[in-house]
Amino acid sequence: MGLSKFYIFSLLSLFFYSVEIIAQDLQLDSLKSIINENKKDTINVNALLDISNILSKSDTLESKNYALKAIDLAEELDYKKGQAYGYKNLGLILYAKGELNKELIDYWEKSLELFKKIDFKNGISNLQGNLGSVYQTKGDDPTALAYFLNSLRLAEEINEPKRIGTAYINIGSVYANEKATYEQAIESFNKAKKICENIDYKEGVAYAAVNIAELYLKTNNPKAALQVLNEYMTFFDKADADKANGLIMIGRAYEDMGEPNIAEKKYMEAIILATENDAKMEASKAYIQLGNMYNKKNELSKSLDKYEKALELTEITNVLPDKKKIYEGLANIYAKLGNYENAFDFQKQFSAVMDTIRSDDYEHTLGNLRFQYDIENKEKEIQLLNTENKVKEIQLEKVAISKKYFYAVSVLLFAIAFGALLQYRFVKKSNRRLADEQNKTESILLNILPAETAEELKLHGSVKAREFKQITVLFTDFKAFSTVAELIPADKLVKSVDYYFKKFDEIVEKYGLEKIKTIGDAYMCAGGLPTENETNAMDAYNAAIEILQFVNNTQKNPPKNVHPFEIRIGLNSGSVVAGVVGTKKFQYDIWGNTVNIAARMESSSIPGKINVSENTYNLLKDKIDFTYRGIITVKNSKKLKMYFVGKEMNENEIIS
Fold first, then answer.
1. Where are the domains of the chain?
2. Which helix (H) or strand (E) holds 398?
3. What digits encode the pLDDT tens for the residues 281-296?
C-alpha cells in the first residue's frame, strides 16, 4: 500500500524558481542586491522566492523566512501568483523533511486556492498533483487518485506535456499499489515515458522507468529491476531524497536476489544520505527494510532496533503505510521472543492503522474513480473514432453529390465553353502579357512591403513615415555562424539558411508579425505594425517559442545537407518610427531605441534561450513565467534588466 515519494513524480522537482548549482553564490548576491533596493514590486517578490529556493537544502529556517517575506510583500501588492508560490514553497520545505502534517496541507490548499482565483491552470494542475502526492504517501489512495485525475484533465486542457506525463506517472503509482491493476499501472507509466521521450525530457523518462522497476520488484523480477535502476540512477541528484529511495530499491533488488550483504550496505547508504538531507520519510523506509531483512534472518535484536528507529521517525512523518509495516514487524518479533503481551499490543495497532487506511468506503471510492478514469479514456477513443467516421461520411456524400452535379452541368458547360472558347483565346492573348507583368509587380512589391504600405505606395507614389507607440521587436541569430560558414560548402550554407528562414517566415505570418529584414544569419520581425494591436507582445512571444522549438527539433534530426544551428532570440517592446526608404529598391524598415534594445537582448542571450527586456517582461509577467537574469549596461551607461523566458530549476519542473 502506497509508494514512497520517489515514485510520486509530481515531487520530482520541488521548486518553481531554480538556479544552477555552480552559480548559486553569485545568484544569491545578485538577488540580495535586488531586495536591498527595498522596491515594492513583483521583481522583489520573485527575488525573495528565488533566495528561499536556493537556501532550501542548506538552511531551511532561512528558506522559510524568505518565503514568508515574499508572501507578505505579494499580499501587500495583491500579487496572488507570488503569494501562491510562497505558500507552495513553505509546504515543499516541510515535504522535503518528511513532515506530512496539517500545516503542509494547509499551505498547499492556500496555494491552490490562490491559483484558482487568478485562473492559472498550470499552477492549479501542479498543486492538485502535489496534494495527491501527500495523500498517497499517507495511504489515502482514493483522495490521491481524485487529485491526480483532476490534475491530468487540466493538464490536457492546457496541453502541457510535462504536466500530462507527471499525471500519468502519479495515476500509475496508485494502480501499482494493487496487484489486480498492475496492467493499468504499466499502461500509465508507458504513456508517461512516451510523452517525456517525445519532448526529450530525460528525467521524466527516468522516473517512468524507475516506477516500472518497482513493478519488476513486486512481480519477483529483481534482475530486470536492478538493470533499470542502474541505468537511470544517474539522473537523481545526490542531495535529493530521490537518491536515497533509489538506493533502497537497489537494496531490495539485491535482497531478492539472495545478496543480503550488498542489500544491507545499500540500506545503510540510504540512511546516511537521508539523514544528511533531513529526509525523515526516506530514512524510516530504509530502517524498515533493514528491520524486515534482520527479521527474516532471525537477528531479532537488530531487527527490533531498526523498527524502533523507524517508528520514532514515523511519529513525525505520520505516514500510515510505514507505520503499518512497523507494527506488523514488531508484532512478529515480540511473538518470536515469547513476549505475547507486546505482540498483541502491536497487532492491535497494526489492525487500527489498516482500518484507518482501508475505511468502509475505501474500495468503493477507489473503484468508482478507476471506473470513471477508464470510461473517460474509452470516451476519448470513441470520440476519435466518431470523428473519423463523420469525416468519411462527409467525403462519401460529397463524392455522390459531385457526380450528380457533374453529369447535369457537364452538358451545359460544354455548350457554353465551346461558344466562349474563341472569345477566350482572343482575350487571353491580349491580356496575358499585361496580367503577367502586373502580377509580377504585385508579388515583388508585397514581398518587400506590408500590404497596407504597398497599397499606399501604389495610390500616392510615396509612403509617409509613421510612429507606432507600442510594438514588439524580435531578433534572432545563429551561434557561431561565421565559423560554420568557413567550414561548410557554400551551397550547403545557403540551403541551410534558406531552410530556416522559410520556416521563420511561416511562423511570423502565423502570428501576425511583419518580417522586416534579414542580414546574413540575423532575422528581424515585429508585431503591432503596420496595423496596431494590443497583442503584439504575446504574438512575438508565441512566434519566438515556435521558432526555438523548430530549431531545437532540426538540431536533433537535421534534414540532408542542412546544418543544425543553435539559435539566440531577443525581444523588446516600445515605440518605433516605420517607413519606406529607397527609390529603385524599396525597403520597409523601422528605427528607434526599441530596435537597438531588442538587438542587445538577442546578442546578450545564450543559445537555446529567449531573452526579453524589462519592457516586454512587464507586458507578459502575469501570463508567462520568467527568470530574472541581471543587468547589462548599454550606451550612455544606461542599465537594462533582462529576463529569460521560463523558470530555470535545480530539478526539473514537476512540482514547480
1. 463-624
2. helix 362-448
3. 889 999 999 999 999 9
Distance CA 51, CA 60 (A): 11
Contacts for 95 with CB less than 8 Å, ≥ 6 apart? 5, 11, 14, 104, 134
For residue range 11-32, list pLDDT tens digits in order.
434 343 333 444 566 677 778 7
**pLDDT at 7 (0 to 100):** 42
To 5 degrees, how large is the angle CA 553–CA 559–CA 564? 55
Give me the helices (H) in 233-296, please: 241-256, 260-276, 280-296
pLDDT, one tens digit per residue, over 416-450 is 766 666 666 655 765 666 555 555 555 555 565 66
Instruction: Identify the architecture of domain 463-624 in CATH.
Output: 2-Layer Sandwich (3.30)
Upstream peptide bond of 559 is cis (omega within 30 degrees of 0): no
SS3 content of the chain, % helix, strand, coil (to 5): 70, 10, 20
> How many Cβ atoms are within 10 Å of 425's Cβ, its own excluded?
10
Q: Could you tell me if 189 and 211 are in contact, meaning their C-beta atoms sit under 8 angstroms apart?
A: yes
Q: Are 282 and 4 a contacting pair, CB within 8 Å?
A: yes
Query: Cβ distance 128 to 151 under 8 Å?
Result: yes
The grid coordinates listed for 432 are 496575358
DSSP summary character for residue 574: E
Half-sphere exposure of 253 (CA within 13 A, CB side): 22
Q: Other C-beta atoms within 10 Å of 368: how many?
A: 14
DSSP assignment of 40-65 equals -SHHHHHHHHHHHHHTTTT-HHHHHH
Asked if residues 35 and 47 have their Cβ atoms less than 8 Å apart, the reply is yes
| Cβ neighbours for 259, distance < 8 A, ≥ 6 positions apart | none
Cell of 49: 522566492
Cβ–Cβ < 8 Å for 524, 516: yes
- Residues 621-649 have a mean pLDDT of 85
DSSP string, 431-442: HHHHHHHHHHHH
Grid cell digits, residue 540: 512575438
* Strand segments (E) across 146-210: none
In the block, residue with C-alpha cell 496487484: 179
d(CA 463, CA 461): 7
Q: Is the pLDDT of residue 470 over 60?
A: yes
Residue with cell 545503510: 268
**Adjacent-strand bridge partners of 579:** 589
| Alpha helices (runs of H) in 78-160, residue ranges in sequence order | 80-96, 102-117, 121-137, 141-157
Selection from 452, 473, 474, 475 nearest residue 464 by Cα:
452
C-alpha 595: how far from its chain's center? 31
Residue 149 CA, distance from chain mean position: 18
Q: What is the rounded distance in angstroms from the CA atom of residue 505 to the CA atom of residue 550?
A: 12
Determine the distance from the C-alpha atom of residue 584 to the mean position of all C-alpha atoms in its chain, rounded to a whole number: 50
